[in-house]
Amino acid sequence: QVQLVESGGGLVQSGGSLRLSCAASGSIFSIAAMGWYRQAPGKQRELVADITSGGSTNYADSVKGRFTISRDNAKNAVYLQMNSLKPEDTAVYYCKITIAVIRLYDYWGQGTQVTVSS
Asked: Which letter, b or e, does each residue of 39-70 get, where b requires 16 or more Cβ atoms within 10 Å of its Cβ?
């Protein structure tokens, strides 16, 4: 019943910026965490950044100082501001929201392509 819609991907030159957005709707009772993951061709999906319901953030070492995750609790939305983009940031970016009811449930967005040219 939970749906995640993400947007904001695109093609940018090295050094450019993008802002990814993800909004959740449906039967959301309690959000435990929200985050962003990415997957490049031939690579495993990896954590980029996440933020807990308490506001604690975590970033992959490769994006620290360049990316910022934020949330809007009223809109059930999570954002990823990406600055100083590098070609190695090229991937499909997926948002995830973890809902806590009796147990934890993960819901994934459809993914948005980010391509950074040299």
From this structure: eeeeeeeeebbbbeeeeeeebeeebeeebebe
Distance CA 66, CA 63 (A): 5
* Residue 67, token pair as written in the block: 């990316």
Where do we find the tokens 């147990």? 103
Q: What is the pLDDT of residues 84-108, one digit of tens each?
A: 999 999 999 999 999 988 889 999 9
* Residue 116 confidence (pLDDT): 97
> CA-to-CA distance for 60 and 3, rounded, in angstroms?
26
For residues 43 and 96, is the Cβ–Cβ distance under 8 A? no
Structure tokens at 109: 């967005």
For position 27, what pLDDT does the model report? 80
